[in-house]
Structures are given as structure tokens and as C-alpha cells.
Amino acid sequence: AGYDIKNIQWTTCKDFTVQRGQEQIEEYISTWEFHESWLHWTQFLREEDMKYSTRYHYRVCWSTPTRRKPIPRATASVYFIIEVSKIKPATLPVEVFFILETSRLIHRPGECRFREKWLKDIIENKIILMESL
């Protein structure tokens, strides 16, 4: 009820670069609450040119390796899209949203609270599916 939804100051459209986008995704993820056993890496996927904007797609892959199982059985991905407007003033910040790999629900930084359970559910569902095959 009284939870403060965290966000960061996103870069302006004119200052955006692919590298800066990746750094800002990492900075934003650092505001999330998750157990220290989770590891992740961020990868730039592609640039999508649209009529009124350019979208930059990134993937953040999550896993929980252990000493006994250093190679995880499954991973969970969170896909980020950073949208740089071609028509709005270049001094405005970029638009950012993210989607979990098994969902169509679009999340926006500063509007929703990240839940570690989302990652756990994705991995558990993948393991259940692999075991059933």
C-alpha cells in the first residue's frame, strides 16, 4: 500500500546511444528488489526504425546458478524497448517499457513494482515443461 515505486532519470532523446541505453537499463534494474543469488546480463538485440520513432530492443537474461548447478536448467528473459521520438522535442526523455518473456503485459518504469516472483514463475514453468517432455 505505502510502497514507493522506484525509477531513474532516463536520458533525453538527443543524448541517447545504444550503449547509454544499456547502461540505463542496468541502472534501472539496480532499483529492483531481488535476492542476491540472481545473476543477469543485458544484450542489445536490434534497432527498429518506425515512422515517428526509433525503437531499441534489449534482452536481460536472468538465472540463479549454484555451486551444485553452475549451469541453470532454465533462464528468464525481460525485454526492454527504449523508444526515441523523431517528432517530439529532442530534450524530452526517451520512452521505456519492458515485457516479461511469457507475458504480453507492458510494464513502464515508475508505474509498476518489479516482482522477483515473475522470474521464478517463468523458470519454474520452463522446468515443468521440460520434465513433461
Automatic annotation (TrEMBL):
UniProt signal peptide: none
GO MF terms held by the record: protein kinase A regulatory subunit binding
Highest taxon listed in the record's lineage: Eukaryota
GO cellular component, one term: cAMP-dependent protein kinase complex
A Pfam family it matches: AKAP28
InterPro entries, sorted: AKAP, AKAP_28
The name this protein goes by in its record: AKA14 protein
Organism: Crypturellus undulatus
Gene name as annotated: Akap14
